[in-house]
Amino acid sequence: MSNNNTATMQQSFPMNGGDGPHSYLNNSHLQRQATNASRITIEEAIAKKLDVKCFSSNPFRLADLGCSVGPNTFIAMQHIVEAVERKYLAQGLKSEMPEFQVFFNDHVANDFNTLFASLPTERRYFACGVPGSFHGRLFPESSIHFMFSSHALHWLSKVPEELLDKNSPAWNRGRIHYTSGPEEVSHAYAAQFEHDMEIFLSARAKELVFGGMIVLLIPALPTGIPTSHIPIGIMFDLLGSSLMDMAKEGLISEAEVDSFNLPIYATSLEQMTSLVERNGYLIIERMELMDPTSKHVAVSGKDYTMNFRAGMEGIFGEHFGSGIIDEVFDRLYKKTVEFSHQLESSHKEGTQLFVVLRRK
Amino acid sequence: MSNNNTATMQQSFPMNGGDGPHSYLNNSHLQRQATNASRITIEEAIAKKLDVKCFSSNPFRLADLGCSVGPNTFIAMQHIVEAVERKYLAQGLKSEMPEFQVFFNDHVANDFNTLFASLPTERRYFACGVPGSFHGRLFPESSIHFMFSSHALHWLSKVPEELLDKNSPAWNRGRIHYTSGPEEVSHAYAAQFEHDMEIFLSARAKELVFGGMIVLLIPALPTGIPTSHIPIGIMFDLLGSSLMDMAKEGLISEAEVDSFNLPIYATSLEQMTSLVERNGYLIIERMELMDPTSKHVAVSGKDYTMNFRAGMEGIFGEHFGSGIIDEVFDRLYKKTVEFSHQLESSHKEGTQLFVVLRRK
Description:
Two copies of one chain form a homodimer.
Chain A: H1 5-9, H2 29-37, H3 39-49, E1 60-65, H4 72-90, E2 100-106, H5 112-117, E3 126-131, E4 144-150, H6 183-207, E5 208-219, H7 231-248, H8 254-258, H9 269-279, E6 282-290, H10 301-320, H11 325-338, H12 340-344, E7 352-359
Helix pairs in contact in A: 3-4, 6-9, 7-11, 10-11
């Protein structure tokens, strides 16, 4: 067994660590809103579909895949532990209430020091950190009862190779994402996502106990809506044009933009359904599109910009050098102001996929 | 359950993180020698005393308590995994060979980022980091098959309180350790160690599966030898007198030295035996004094100084301020040269206790 063979060939893009003004810790409230929005749905899934009677009693092991540095992961894990405790009570198993062990997983380069330092002191579980890519095995066979992943699976394991081949129709010149690009580019992204998900689902199926549950929250594209009409797609276009402006001004080269692509993909309900069915080890208990934020909450261009920066500063810095980060995100912010009508009128409904799977 | 209630009242003194010239990573070869010296003895304990037939097959879970940042912990875990694999083969259980999961434990403030970044890529186990003090619970009940702790248990959970009370006969004026101090100071340290070990052994007994094994390597005092005659004791005396010199020169105050004590204690074979017996949950399979380093390896004053600095820079910096660290350890090094005859002729035999315990 060599758990890292695949991981070392993959790219790793951790969220910003620490607790500074650009940290993920202080700029992840959009992800938190999305998780909160799904809280009741997760509780329902546990109440209705998780049969704790079929587990050997002790302990109950949970994992958060792509947990980043908190606090979102702590809030989510606490909710899930409480919901499972209620399920034990509801199934008349008070005397068999297990101890809980939570595995916080993210890339090796994730800031686990910050994660550990901010663990809630009054937690009701034993905590572990698991470094490594979820695009591969992370846990021993049949050892996890519940897996959760929120806003992480849209990160591909790597940029599809054909995007960097000048002779390929998928060469992504002048853009940094498939949004508003040619069909070949979208197809290359989709193929990479399908490959990644096949590995992801097979690994999780091995690691889950029989009857174990996976809950996934993933940014998604509603049927019939182009990526360029959803907020994340608009942001990718604005980021790309910010970079092209900088290239025109000679601050970076066009070749640098051409060779840079964000390995982020928004799946659809239909695609995800077919991938789970093709894998065959997991029952789809629920699969539906949700609104990631409440309709009453206005998300500003500043919010989107800070959120993007906390998640993507690392990958931009690696490619373009850390010296241009401020410039890139300053320009991005100005574009969000300039194109605020586009962001405001964008299609936000159903841009999050909620998935509940159970191990056969 | 609140796993951290006790931990938050304790003091935390991680080894130096990172990979710089004063890092534990680059200055822990004395601990590595000590672990290597015990390698064959650990293999013997596993071969003779670990009955893997009594475990449910999958996975086999190991923990290293007080692992620091590597590489020592990786070397030790690799040896133990290989020895357990051989035991499965020897017991005719090739077809039931388990997957391995290793829990690397240390204080929350330990540099887990460095630990994770330096994990061997070709490892034969799934890796987790477990933040928290081993002076308390770390794992779910009956969940670990093998625990290891090397050169960590001599760290007390805190400085005994009476040492800071000017009206107590255990007030430790002008010294930073019980070495060469009055009996009351030694007794206060011993009482704290006994209290800590009671909690340690009870926690481990809960966490181990029946038949599970603990192997401990602890700096120890051979019977009849005063602490001031073993290398670590000489180093404490030299450190204390370095600080008192600095106080006399006005670089720090005497009150600062009086109020500083290193929470480090060297147990004896007799004391440890009686503590394990009093606890009652663990069988002593082996308990003996060993030489921590080969007789043919000369350890220089520089080696000792660098080793002390990597382990103790944090605790000194917290009390005296990080500005004096270089000065303290420069002086310590000079003292090791001045008193090199004392270090060379010190009593080194049997200053490491090797303990094998098995869960009843």
